Amino acid sequence: MDQRYRYVRFFRELGIEDIASVGGKNASLGELYRELTPQGVRIPNGFAITADAYRHLLDSAGAWEALHEALDGLDPDDVADLASRAARARSIVYGAPLPPDLEAEMLAAYRELQAEYGETLSMAIRSSATAEDLPTASFAGQHDTYLNVRGEAEYLDACRRCFASLFTDRAIHYRVDQGFDHFRIALSIGVMKMVRSDLAASGVMFSLDTESGFRDVVFITAAYGLGENVVQGAVDPDEFYVHKPTFEQGHRCVLRRNLGSKKVKMIYTRGRTREPVRNVPTSAEERARFCISDAEVLKLADYAIKVERHYSKQAGHDKPMDMEWAKDGLDGELYLLQARPETVASQRQGAMLEEYRLDGEPGPLLATGRAVGTRIASGRARVIHDLDELQDFQPGEVLVADTTTPDWEPVMKIAAAIVTNRGGRTCHAAIVSRELGIPAVVGSGNATEAIHDGDTVTVSCAEGDVGRVYAGAVPYVVERTDLSHLARPATRIMLNLGNPELAFKTSFLPNDGVGLARMEFIINEYIKVHPLALLHPERVEDPEQRERIARQIRGHANGAEFFVQRLSEGVGTIAAAFWPKPVIVRLSDFKSNEYASLLGGRAFEPEEANPMLGFRGAARYTHPAYAEGFALECAAMKRVREEMGLTNLRLMVPFCRRVEEGRKVLQSLAEHGLKRGEQGLEIYVMCEIPNNVIQIDAFAELFDGFSIGSNDLTQLVLGVDRDSELVAFDYDERDAGVKAMIRMAVEGARRNGRHSGICGQAPSDYPEMAEFLVEIGIDSMSLNPDSLLRTTQHVLEVEARLGRAPRSS
Q1: Which of 32, 132, 144, 514 measures 20 to 30 Å from 667, CA to CA?
Q2: pTM (2 decimals)?
């Protein structure tokens, strides 16, 4: 310890073992500065004014008796009494003069920090409370912070205000709720270089996905200005994911991103210490672009991984972390401001799977936003416009508000769900709802207008990243499954998946990878534009559609870059979620009428009488009418495998009618940098046309495996259009002729040493088909997530009957 100081300790001297002396926040900052600065993690330097300094202040002023008079006999549920007593207690502490020895040390430490950063130093003054008898207690968010503090007088005043903030209304109420003695709690102050994020950007990041608990990503949120807006949910931030395993292998690529609206930014206003900041609108240009670059996202991911590794090593087990960061607009550097253990998603018990699912037709959609959690709840809406209205809130109601603050937490604890106009997935409402285990939809934009007070609504967070609020009480079911003793069948059980938003959550199901990732879903939902319209917008005649296309690709250099980035991030998210298990992505299989329905599509698509048998699948890839579009698909898949490093991605060619067609497609893939066998690339073919079965030996010479598409195979074997109401009754995958074809395909694949799987609907819908597939020895089944557990149990039973032992892992 620096012998010059009794009440001050610089970050270089502090570690996590000093919580009792300087509180969790300061101990963590010291730990970070001391241990991670040498690893290249930039942390602003500073010092802690210790909890002993707080006690020395009150001892010198003889203030303890007055504090007892102010607080003894407090009724925390009497809001007026609480406010009055808290104000008196703060006045006592703030009015206590700093003892000369303490003031001298505080000024000496300030001057030492100023010598390091220069005369223009501005500071952040942060509270860091601790309990004598419980040093690990957390008091996050209960006490005051003062930012952009300059000069000695302002600095000393801010510190006195911090000491007094031990007695804010919310801090007193929190201690009563937690059973803490007000007089056993002390307050340390953190003083650190102010990172001028008001001139740049800031945010929060986690070393896991906060909604699903998926551990293999860093999740970063970012907005312009000071970070308070992100933490409190006053702004919808940009979001980024980075995949940790491939990052640590040396791949530097953002996995996925989402552009937030970022409508306001918090900046400094010089003046009274109490009100140093204000929100100002961001420009249209600022809102249309990401507030940090990819290089900065990757640097933050590097910080997060190093922080998690340090604390995990210290704990002896994985320890996901919750961190705050900021970019300094003066020096352009990224700083880590705070790190603490993540305490919600990481604590979930993985052995028990809980799935919420809507079980009825939803009513009208009232609002959408970011989904927090994966649950569903219904209740009477209580729209809160003013704090005074909180007293009317009843247990089980749905809280609808512009945003929430820590003062709202007593009401939030009794809510069925929460809906806010503002905020991202790391805002106050999101954090509290996760802790409480209730669904929340944040950042909806207009919930307080679209939802009427007293109406019954259903809040659904079980449909991916987008949370939805429906009118009325929509029936839903909750399925709970104990996975701890579920054996793995000898038959590989894979998943059908198209929606990247569900990938992290779905990866927790017991699976052997993804047998069918549908590219069409990603193009429909995240791109929305015909690939050729992106390359040749001038050929789109409708001016309104041209304008919509231009809006869609805003922020990208051109349409091609937009397509490749969006498609690669969608596919990459699925591949990352199941890494290192195989993920088989089917190349685009839109029919011409489906392609025509995309923005600008009609300018590039023929009108066909029977699109199901027309210009689709493999036929398009080398045809002059679509070859440029196929090149974009290939560029996206190459980016996933090479730049993102997700080499578990395998490709599958759909609707390949003839062997020669397959040969041409493989040649085209190779020309676009996707050569079968290079860097372990496997290429499969859909087995969905009778000719694929009849000539399976020839197809096996070209491809690494077969995935039986029972939907189209059934249509083509039986000659039935399943979409025709007149003949659809004849469509049945269980028909003897269809089953004979499937048997021939499985036997042919085995004969040629090739993988055989099925990705059609049949085993998901019909237990007897799953049984048949096991009996003929298919290698894998790819199932819909909602039928995976049920079908897995059935497959285990069939294998037991056949004398096949389950896999050990």
Answers
A1: 514
A2: 0.85
